[in-house]
Design goal:
Helices cover about 30% and strands about 25% of the residues. The chain is an alpha+beta fold. Strands 7-16-15-14-10-13 form a 6-stranded mixed sheet. Strands 1-4-5-6 form a 4-stranded antiparallel sheet, with no helix packed on it. Strands 2-3 form a two-stranded antiparallel sheet. A hairpin with a 2-residue loop joins strand 11 and strand 12.
Length: about 375
């Protein structure tokens, strides 16, 4: 009480449930009475102080009132105070600009003309945010315009036929786009000697009355054994935590006329190789007949995609979320290699692991891939 205040000067800060509002003096005068003290709760519209204005025979009292939360386009109307006819010279325009003390200090330090800034605070008062926005706008104007590309993107040909996406294709599009946009992929490739694997498979398939074993079955078993040794690969990134899965469930990408699906071989690490072969054949059959159950295609912790039958040498797969890795398998080719200082022909196959860098680093991915490779190059481990 007793302090002299100028019109537009900040005299209090009011906290509402939506915002903090700085209260300005509506007139120049002396605070003759404080009605509400710091920390007290009062309803909106209740006076908080009395300001005596100078110059009148019977000086009226100007009361500072609790404001509503500010609305940018609707400045608050102060309580009406009797106005005297202007007798003094007009106040310069710059002095009539309402701005918070911090905004004025920022403008002085940076040489900004406040008359060029539109205030967004109560009663059009300029705030520090307005100063910052003004500076950002100036920087944007000064930034050089990026050069236009030499050629615009070619328009879609008028004769193109628009086709609706199937539900499966829409799901694939959404999941794969999300995977590439949210998972930081990296890739490691290994060259695998498949000579012993080919011989072992031939021997196992010599029995007419038993389920035939494919190279994919052998890769599933090798990956399952490697996942058991490297549980970090058998995990998922979830809300800044690592979920390490107890079960090793390997998905196998199966191509369909309208897309692909990845049925899952559950607990593949504990299955004998021939049982894996029977399981994959049954799952692939159900996938093509569209008779997979929910259990058949959920719960996967790792996925294998094999394009070897299409004579693809190597490729990189997109990770199937929420998994943290996937292996892409190419075709097996007879290639010249150097062994014991001599050139020989060897059956070679390339495998590429796609890994989530939030979960795995290059060294772990490489060690895991080398474990899969060693299992295939010494296939007795698979039996």
């Amino acid at each position: 009480e007793g302090d002299t205040v100028d019109k537009g000067q900040i005299i209090a800060e009011i906290e509402t449930d939506k915002a903090n509002v700085e209260m300005e003096a509506f007139e120049q005068g002396v605070i003759s009475k404080i009605l509400v003290h710091e920390g007290e709760a009062v309803p909106v519209g209740q006076p908080i102080a009395v300001i005596e204005t100078a110059g009148a025979a019977a000086p009226p009292e100007a009361q500072a009132v609790i404001p509503e939360a500010p609305a940018p386009a609707q400045p608050e109307a102060p309580e009406e105070v009797p106005q005297e006819p202007p007798a003094e010279a007009a106040v310069p325009e710059e002095e009539r600009i309402m701005a918070s003390p911090l905004a004025r200090r920022m403008s002085e330090e940076r040489g900004i003309d406040l008359s060029k800034i539109h205030g967004t605070g109560p009663n059009g008062r300029i705030t520090e945010t307005d100063i910052e926005d003004f500076l950002k706008a100036e920087k944007k104007e000064e930034a050089p315009t990026p050069p236009r590309p030499a050629e615009e993107a070619a328009p879609i040909p008028a004769e193109a036929e628009e086709q609706e996406l199937s539900r499966m294709r829409k799901t694939i599009a959404e999941r794969m786009a999300k995977s590439k946009q949210t998972i930081p992929h990296f890739y490691v490739t290994a060259d695998v000697a498949m000579d012993w694997a080919a011989r072992t498979r031939e021997e196992l398939n010599a029995h007419e009355d038993q389920v035939k074993i494919s190279f994919t079955d052998m890769i599933i078993k090798a990956a399952a054994l490697a996942l058991k040794e490297f549980p970090q690969v058998n995990s998922s990134f979830h809300e800044d935590k690592l979920l390490v899965h107890k079960n090793i469930n390997v998905g196998l990408a199966v191509a369909l006329p309208d897309g692909l699906v990845a049925p899952v071989v559950h607990n593949a690490d504990s299955m004998p190789l021939r049982q894996i072969a029977a399981e994959t054949k049954e799952l692939a059959k159900r996938a093509r007949e569209n008779t997979l159950t929910t259990t058949d295609y959920t719960g996967g912790t790792f996925t294998i995609s094999n394009l070897g039958m299409f004579d693809v040498e190597e490729f990189a797969a997109i990770i199937n979320p929420p998994e943290s890795a996937s292996i892409a398998v190419g075709t097996i080719r007879d290639m010249p290699v150097v062994e014991d200082d001599a050139i020989t022909i060897s059956k070679r196959m390339k495998m590429t692991i796609s890994a989530d860098h939030r979960v795995l680093d290059g060294a772990v991915a490489a060690q895991f891939l080398n474990k899969v490779k060693s299992c295939l190059e010494s296939p007795t481990n698979l039996l």
